[in-house]
Amino acid sequence: MSAAGGLEIVVPQGFDTARIPKLIHDRRDWIARAAQRVEKERRRLREEPPRLPDRIVLSALGETWEVQYRSNEACSAGAVRRAVARESAGGRLTVTGDLGDAQACKEALCRWLRRKARESLGLWLAEISGRHGFEYGRVTVRLQRSRWASCSPRKAISLNARLLFLAPEIVDHVLLHELCHTVEMNHSPRFWILLESHDPEYRAHRRLLRAAGTSVPTWLDHGPSGRQV
Asked: Per-residue b/e over 184-221, b at no fewer than 16 CB within 10 Å?
């Protein structure tokens, strides 16, 4: 249960899904208490202004960015100009705009993060697919809360920019998971056999992915909960 993903039920392979309604009924009191905590957290996130970071660590890329904030006089004077984030030498990221508008500064950082993800994740996917012999269609990169990645029946792959906050081996796992869906559009035994042939440690990687949402910094809100790929 999380503010971003709501209630998620994770069951092992081969589990009789007909038992899920009874499990939910048996745990209904716990679910109700958890739902109250989640709603309280959602209200807090809506009401509190975002806390802006002074450092951003992109673990997937091995990069650390020191963030500086610079007031824009035109914005302060009331001119309509959105905040922007620009990279400079030495791993510095400068956000320029109305520093009194924390949400606008956060949106500038989000746009920068999406650009970084588009530049890196597309190349990453191309490299790993070529190495493992997969083919795929269109690639899109978004800043999502619900899933780390997905693959459509037309082999179009969508990737979450939040992947940049995860360890490289976990990003590899997510990409291979989606590439395997270009062959098996399901989670049948054939899918897991295929995934294991390309990612022999996939079980350990899946366990790490369950908690990976907490790797996403709080200024961006937590990432997808559980193994949502």
From this structure: eeeeeeebeebbeebbeebeebbebbeebbebbbebbb
pLDDT at 48: 62
- Across 203-218, average pLDDT: 91
SS3 98: coil
This prediction has a pTM of: 0.75
Supply 91's token pair. Answer: 């791993």
**Structural domains of the chain, with CATH:** 1-48 (no CATH), 55-220 (3.30.2010.10)
Strand partners, 57: 64
Position of tokens 């002074």?
A: 54
For helices 168-181 and 189-198, give the axis angle rounded to 10 degrees: 140
Nearest alpha carbon to residue 8 among 18, 16, 23: 23
Which residue is associated with the tokens 């997808």? 224
Instruction: Give the pLDDT band (50/70/90) at residue 79.
Output: very low
